[in-house]
Amino acid sequence: MTAATLVNDDELRTMLAERSGLDSDALFFAVYSVPRTFGMPWPLTREQAEEVLPGLLDNLRRVLPPPRREAQDDRKRYVFLSEITDHYARFDTRQLLARIDHAGATPARPSLGGDTYDPRAARGWGARPSAAADHNGKPSWGWWRAVREAGPRPLFRMPVPYVGEGAPPVDRCLALRNRTGDTTAYREALDAAVREDPRQIDCWAHLGADALAQGEADDAALLAALGFYQTAVAVAELSLPATFTGVLAWSEHDNRPFHRALQGLGQTWRELGEQAKARAVFANCLWTNPDDHMGLRYLIGQLKAGVPPSRRSEA
To answer: 92 — alpha (psi -120 to 50), left (phi > 0) or beta?
Structure first.
């Protein structure tokens, strides 16, 4: 009779690393609690190891909880990613966020001079913006009524998204692609940038955009895009207060990487058929950037009407 193969904690960590793509040394605490969580003492049988691995992999992708709020606050506010979904697409997102948070995330700051965004000022869309179709389609304005009802709100600026000296990493990556036409080298350069410093929101967003473009013919690329965009948004959210009611104007250049990441995340979820999640993300986009430089007011109506994205309508 052949003896059952036994698996100790080191071997289980190796198995988990192989399936998650994470470094084995980073998985000590993920495996440490197996006896308590699953009621199985060490060593495990091979069958028991296979039984607990799906749960361990699921825990690695589970979103971090939203920031704690001191008291009940019914004001309309930014809705955090962890309130929209319960899992990250990437196995490393949770660990990257914990790493940044431990080092100390830089908070968003009120704009210089303490300026506010007043939706009733001349810069706004007016009390009765036209809902007639134009060359971009038919805009939706329900979100704008909520913005007007909220009244003046403080303008904020995100932390400088490009860390270090010299040209921003994303600019160096784009220059490489434009100079050589080598998209593989471009992706590798972006990946190297976020591995060196996961706070590079724009590099995450450009990785997402590249994968989303490939997703027109490849569902796996869509899932990769989702992971890149989720990570970009989650990293940016570390800079927001628990109850964020402010405006991140497009005119502040440091706010643009976050807006690009939000837009890409919403588009990716739409392509994946996650309409409710896409609507929630686009609502965040329009709440934090009411001037809507990205034209998302045209997509909101399509989402509510259940209009499929072009990729699926042509399938």
So the answer is: alpha
